[in-house]
């Protein structure tokens, strides 16, 4: 039993959370279900409810009250059975603070004066309190202006990183609920927190960044609620009775890194039995509208993996270069001992140039952490309020020699559940897929970012728009992206314009003031639809429908009666390899062709969304609009010869995959696209727009062989060129590292950028062969299309209903496929040269020779 899209139900912010469950093995399908809710000690059962729904089923009882905890379990009936299944294990859901009046806390921070324009030393805050008896239950509801790590009685609360994350803070500040019952004891207790600047008041953004984007204060917002066996409660909330002191973190920034002076650190600062030290003074209180505090919709950022260095190289001047073998996002944990005052400096970079860290691509993200030793013995330390994108680290000032056991890279990202896997007989393709996975991990850090290493790390709307189909296969990212899309809606301008990136920060002169742009703004329509298709969430569609409508209606106004969006600033096929390094938008495809194509595509998807929501009249209106735009597209951009005005792969790819061409034009476009690809030696000639589409455009017009040639090309530019160059993540540019070993001279040269990895969606559907044919994979098509010399492939996806998998291999006798259909789902197998076969839930083995024989 699960609730909404959350990994657990503690602190949920929805008073009527939707419920999901998977069926017992062998059930086949569900005919009816019964839910049991235990609340306030009373048992409520729904009785038998006829229906097959088991994903995001409406809450069956009265809405939850703040703090209310309910145990929920389910049993089901399958067709032809009189008796239900056994009851499932109970899942527990507990509401957070659902009403503004529930909050007593106010923000508290440093009581001393600070220069808002200077680098400020982060504060510690704490409060001592006493309990006369042992609590039965305790909950900490906590957030901050900036970042925080909370402690109670010298022990850390939770394990999340960069909490509370990055939202549009004036409208939504996320708080988290922690069960801290085991942290408390009868007698004296202490609660405290480390504070950091983070996105709230740190320096962030382009060209030196902007300081204090959301405010100048750094403050904790915490409410500890303690319940006893007799039902009475105590509340310890942040207020003027708390104390603050400068902490041992001297400076901290997401770009800059962190400096920690262990000589100033009292390990017992948050413990009640301590020797008093430091300059503790009363806090300064602030204000916050509690109506803006929201519970999480997805999991937090956490450390999900650790890796040791694969090599340590000493330089002639005594520095050490560490290679971790994988470009990752996180930070180093070190264990080191040395004389007091010794400074150990850690610098980070994604690649080496001439044996040294290549830091130019980082621009003004200095990615430097410094530990000043106390001289009190070995110390294990890692930064708290920063993350870096790196494969290599340089260590300076280490006493003696660092060993593989003394330095560990800790990988951090939003702790989503992995749901998708793929592998095949080609090891280069497998490494490409691994690179996609690592780039997603590194860029899903509370929001979907473009890159994790340089002075940017923003929620670019176009990047996730093209990558969402891949992302939603690999990980359960529904809750995280639903939350981020909520912020997209909040940042949408009154005229319907979708910002280039969300949350919005200053971006002069190119990105501020905000202008509407195709492919980027279309995140408003295409990404909610993708998430609905993959996770079966109609509620998500409804929440974001107003945003999608406003975006399409803006394009309608901009295009005017001729239905052509051919004015204004556009990025076009961004980072087309033919574009010069200094102008990534100057590709070979007419940017207004791209804009008009996306206008039609979004209008079509808005019609689909409206129909799904039961808005029949609006569905018809937007379908008619999409038809009008497609007609205008053909008149303007398709020549009588069947060629397009932009004779480029991206132009043909959008025309084909967006359904903008007549059947005759479509085939001609596919043939011409194949000609262009082959004439270019099967090297890539597309950017952010064309790359996710080109393999599908070739496949769907009868040129599967050309799609495989494109996939398997190893010359630059190509997907596998990066692999042969040792890439372990997806690059921003096809030639971020050039064949001669030099770095691309462009100012935008990231080695961890997931957008061009959107081809993995084609790997999953076409090479692997699993396609969602109904929302949430309720209906599945197994349709592998072998080619390119690949002799076997295995792919697996954890759908909302359970595991779907397909493993196929070719032999002299034909193709053998092993399919698994989740309980409660239906599938169709379409193997090469065979008629479709219907499959029920369970495991199936199919062979093309046998199927062809039966058909004959």
Explain what this protein looks like in three dimensions:
The longest helix has 22 residues, at 538-559. It is built from 15 helices and 46 strands. The strands form ten sheets. Strands 14, 21, 22, 26, 27, 28, 29, 32, 33, 34 and 35 form an eleven-stranded mixed sheet that branches. With 856 residues, the chain is of the alpha+beta class. Helix 9 (649-657) runs antiparallel to helix 10. It starts with a strand and ends with a helix.
Are there runs of 5+ residues with pLDDT below 50, and where? none
Instruction: Name the structural class.
Output: alpha+beta
User: Main sheet, how many strands, which sense, barrel?
Assistant: 11 strands, mixed
Question: What best-fitting shape do the alpha-carbon axes yield?
Answer: globular
Q: Level of helix content?
A: 10-25%
**How far apart lie the N and C ends?**
46 Å
Strand content: 25-35%
Per DSSP, the total helix count is 15
Taking all Cα atoms into account, the compactness measure Rg is 28 Å
The oligomerization state is single chain
Average residue-wise pLDDT:
97
Short structural summary:
This protein is an alpha+beta fold and 856 residues long.
Helix and strand topology:
Blueprint: E1 2-3, E2 9-12, E3 19-20, E4 32-39, E5 42-45, E6 49-50, E7 69-77, E8 91-95, E9 108-109, E10 123-131, E11 137-145, E12 147-152, E13 155-156, E14 160-161, E15 173-174, E16 176-179, E17 187-196, H1 198-201, E18 219-227, E19 233-237, E20 243-246, E21 249-253, E22 257-261, E23 281-282, E24 284-285, E25 293-294, E26 301-307, E27 311-314, E28 320-336, E29 343-349, E30 352-353, E31 356-357, E32 368-372, E33 379-381, E34 388-396, E35 407-414, E36 420-424, H2 427-443, E37 444-445, E38 447-448, H3 461-474, H4 478-491, H5 523-535, H6 538-559, H7 591-612, H8 616-637, H9 649-657, H10 663-679, H11 691-700, H12 704-712, H13 719-724, H14 760-768, E39 770-772, E40 779-782, E41 792-799, E42 802-811, E43 814-821, E44 826-829, E45 837-839, E46 842-847, H15 848-855
Helix pairs in contact: 3-5, 3-14, 4-5, 4-6, 5-6, 6-7, 7-8, 7-9, 9-10, 9-11, 11-12
């Amino acid at each position: 039993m699960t609730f909404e899209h959350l990994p657990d139900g503690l602190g949920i912010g929805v008073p009527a959370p939707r419920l999901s469950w998977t069926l017992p093995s062998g059930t086949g399908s569900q005919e009816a279900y019964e839910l049991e809710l235990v609340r306030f000690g009373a048992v409520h059962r729904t009785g038998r409810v006829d229906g097959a729904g088991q994903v995001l089923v409406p809450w069956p009882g009265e809405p939850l009250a703040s703090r209310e905890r309910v145990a929920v379990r389910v049993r089901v009936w399958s067709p032809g059975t009189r008796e239900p299944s056994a009851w499932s294990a109970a899942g527990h859901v507990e509401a957070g603070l659902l009403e503004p009046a529930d909050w007593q806390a106010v923000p508290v921070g440093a009581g001393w004066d600070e220069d808002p324009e200077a680098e400020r030393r982060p504060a510690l805050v704490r409060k001592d309190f006493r309990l006369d008896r042992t609590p039965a239950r305790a909950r900490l509801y906590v957030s901050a202006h900036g970042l925080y790590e909370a402690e109670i009685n010298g022990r850390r609360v939770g394990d999340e990183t960069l909490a509370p994350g990055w939202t549009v803070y004036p409208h939504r500040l996320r708080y988290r609920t922690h069960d801290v019952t085991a942290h408390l004891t009868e007698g004296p207790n202490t609660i405290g927190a480390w504070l950091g600047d983070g996105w709230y008041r740190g320096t962030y953004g382009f060209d030196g960044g902007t300081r204090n984007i959301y405010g100048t204060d750094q403050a904790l917002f915490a409410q500890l609620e303690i319940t006893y066996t007799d039902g009475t409660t105590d509340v310890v909330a942040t207020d003027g009775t708390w104390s603050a002191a400068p902490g041992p973190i001297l400076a901290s920034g997401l770009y800059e890194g962190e400096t920690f002076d262990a000589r100033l650190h009292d390990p017992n600062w948050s413990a009640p039995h301590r020797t008093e030290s430091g300059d503790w003074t009363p806090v300064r209180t602030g204000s916050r509208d509690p109506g803006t505090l929201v519970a999480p919709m997805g999991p937090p950022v956490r450390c999900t993996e650790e890796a040791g260095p694969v090599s340590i190289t000493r330089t002639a001047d005594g520095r050490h270069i560490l290679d971790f073998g994988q470009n990752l996002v996180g930070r180093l944990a070190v264990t080191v001992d040395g004389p007091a005052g010794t400074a150990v400096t850690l610098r980070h970079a994604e690649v080496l140039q001439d044996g040294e860290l290549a830091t130019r691509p980082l621009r003004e993200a200095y990615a430097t952490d410094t530990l000043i030793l106390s001289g009190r013995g070995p110390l294990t330390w890692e930064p708290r309020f920063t993350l870096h994108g790196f494969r290599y680290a340089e260590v300076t000032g280490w006493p003696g020699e660092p060993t593989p056991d003394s330095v560990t890279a800790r990988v951090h990202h939003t702790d989503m559940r992995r749901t998708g896997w793929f592998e095949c007989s080609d090891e280069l393709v497998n490494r490409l897929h691994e690179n996609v996975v690592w780039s997603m991990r590194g860029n899903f850090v509370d929001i979907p970012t473009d890159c994790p290493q340089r002075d940017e790390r923003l929620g670019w709307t176009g990047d996730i728009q093209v990558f969402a189909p891949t992302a939603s296969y690999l990980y359960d990212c529904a809750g995280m992206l639903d939350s981020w899309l909520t912020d997209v809606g909040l940042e949408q301008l009154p005229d319907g314009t979708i910002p280039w990136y969300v949350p919005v920060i200053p971006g002069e002169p190119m990105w501020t003031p905000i202008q509407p742009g195709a492919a980027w703004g279309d995140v408003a329509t295409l990404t909610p639809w993708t998430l609905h298709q993959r996770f079966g969430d109609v509620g998500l569609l409804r929440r974001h429908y107003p945003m999608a409508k406003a975006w399409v209606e803006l394009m309608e106004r901009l295009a005017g009666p001729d239905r052509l969006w051919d004015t204004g600033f556009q990025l076009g096929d961004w980072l087309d390899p033919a574009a010069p390094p200094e102008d990534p938008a100057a590709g070979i495809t007419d940017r207004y062709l791209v804009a008009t194509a996306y206008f039609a595509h979004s209008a079509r998807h808005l019609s689909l969304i409206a129909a799904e929501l039961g808005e029949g009249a609006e569905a018809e209106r937007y379908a008619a609009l999409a038809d009008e735009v497609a007609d205008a597209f053909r008149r303007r951009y398709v020549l009588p010869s069947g060629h397009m005005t932009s004779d480029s792969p991206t132009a043909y790819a959008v025309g084909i995959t967006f359904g903008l061409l007549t059947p005759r034009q479509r085939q001609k476009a596919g043939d011409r696209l194949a000609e262009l690809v082959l004439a270019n030696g099967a090297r890539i000639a597309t950017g952010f727009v064309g790359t996710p589409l080109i393999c599908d455009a070739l496949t769907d017009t009868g040129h599967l062989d050309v799609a495989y040639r494109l996939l398997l090309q190893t010359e630059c530019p190509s997907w596998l060129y990066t692999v042969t160059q040792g890439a372990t993540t997806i690059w921003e540019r096809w030639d971020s590292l050039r064949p001669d070993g030099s770095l691309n001279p462009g100012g935008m040269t990231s080695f961890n950028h997931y957008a061009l990895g959107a081809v993995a969606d084609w790997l999953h559907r076409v090479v692997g062969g699993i396609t969602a044919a109904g929302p949430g994979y309720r209906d599945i098509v197994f349709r592998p299309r072998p080619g390119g010399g690949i002799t076997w492939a295995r792919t697996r996806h954890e759908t909302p209903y359970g595991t779907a998998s397909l493993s196929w291999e070719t032999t002299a006798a034909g193709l053998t496929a092993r399919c698994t259909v989740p309980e409660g789902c239906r599938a169709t197998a379409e193997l090469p040269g065979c008629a479709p076969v219907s499959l029920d839930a369970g495991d199936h083995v199919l062979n093309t020779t046998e199927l062809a024989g039966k058909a004959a």
